[in-house]
């Protein structure tokens, strides 16, 4: 939550530690400022899902753009 609203990216090291330590789905939250941040959380951080608000609320990206971006990079998404 320390990164919430900063748009500087998720805490990837912490997300990765949690994702590998637990056997339940992990949702990265707080800090998304670009589509690359979503990708990093899902790949490097090993999150099962990502939560993003500001990039959509302020119409910097659409949900469709995010899903297309991730799909192009071989991340499984529901279109």
Describe the structure in your own words.
- 42% of the residues lie in helices and 5% in strands.
- The chain has one domain.
- It is built from 4 helices and 2 strands.
- The N and C termini lie far apart (28 Å).
- It is mainly alpha-helical and 79 residues long.
- A two-stranded parallel sheet has the order 1-2.
- It has helices spanning 12-21, 35-43, 54-57, 63-72, and strands spanning 27-28, 49-50.
Keywords:
globular, 79 residues, mainly alpha
Write the layout of secondary structure elements.
Layout: H1 12-21, E1 27-28, H2 35-43, E2 49-50, H3 54-57, H4 63-72
Helix content: 40-55%
Give the beta-strand count. 2
Strand order of the largest sheet: 1-2
User: CA-to-CA gap between the ends?
Assistant: 28 Å
Provide a concise account of the structure shown.
The chain has 79 residues and is mainly alpha-helical. It has 4 helices and 2 strands, in the order αβαβαα.
């Amino acid at each position: 939550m320390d990164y919430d609203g900063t748009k500087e990216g998720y805490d990837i090291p912490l997300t990765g530690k949690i994702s590998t330590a637990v056997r339940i789905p992990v949702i990265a939250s707080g800090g998304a400022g670009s589509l690359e941040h979503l990708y990093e959380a899902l790949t490097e951080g090993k999150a099962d899902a990502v939560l993003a608000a500001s990039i959509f609320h302020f119409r910097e990206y659409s949900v469709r753009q995010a899903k297309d971006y991730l799909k192009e990079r071989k991340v499984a998404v529901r279109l």
